[in-house]
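Students often ask why we bother encoding 3D structure as a string. The short answer is that it lets us treat folding as translation between two languages. Here is a chain of 267 residues written in the first language.
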Amino acid sequence: MGTNALTIAVGFKRLAIASAAVLGMGVATLAAASWLIPTERVRDGFQAELRDAAGFELSVQGSVSVSLFPASTVTFTEVELKGDDKAPALVAERLIGRLRLLPLLFGRFEIADIELVQPRITVVIGPDRSSNWSTLLAGVSTSLNAGAPHPPISFSEIRISQGTVVVQDDARKLYETLSNVDLAFAWPAIAKSFGATGRFVWRLEPIQASLLIGDLGAALSGGRSGAKVRLSGEPFKFAFDGTFARTPSLKIEGAVSADAGSLRDML
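And here it is in the second language, the structure alphabet:
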């Protein structure tokens, strides 16, 4: 009995050593493969899918790096989205795209999700009520309503970490800043709906927020779409559940609820 037990123990030890060796070889292979994949191909493939998905033209001012371990990712530094000449719509310290490993090893680029680290999102509204986002949103609308002329979009989530949102409307003398913005957007890769959940700080007050748009393509093109909005914080609580449309004129229907300790403070 003692000899059998010793034999089994030795067998398990050899199996553990072999498994560790295979695992180590796999890790080494993935690490080496990161150096063999041209960063230019990854950058171009990533930009092409983002262009197909949302009509966005991504400008990379900094470096591009690819890693397959511990996760398959591509990291861009100093990125920018610019819709027109008014102002950059978005600049970010880093953009991290997580890629599906198996398609990448076969030379295909499929984005699993995207994270923007320390982005600054600027919305500048002109006297004609257009903004520096008008061209970008028109591109998203065209992409969503084009009848899928390109392969299905692979990614379904975009996250914002440590972001800042600035809204500037000189005609109405409006200037607002949202800081510490952490949001997750459910991109309509399969369904038509668009959702966003997260939090931000507005005038030193933390606000929890959620948004659901039933049909993003219809909403961007001015058509009718369902919408749910929730804002919750110390200054106030606000909820809307209904529908809206922008053509032929702005029309909003639904139920609104609001709660605040002081109406004066909320206003």
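Translate back mentally: Residues 26-35, 148-152 have pLDDT under 50 and may be disordered. Keep this in mind for the problem set.
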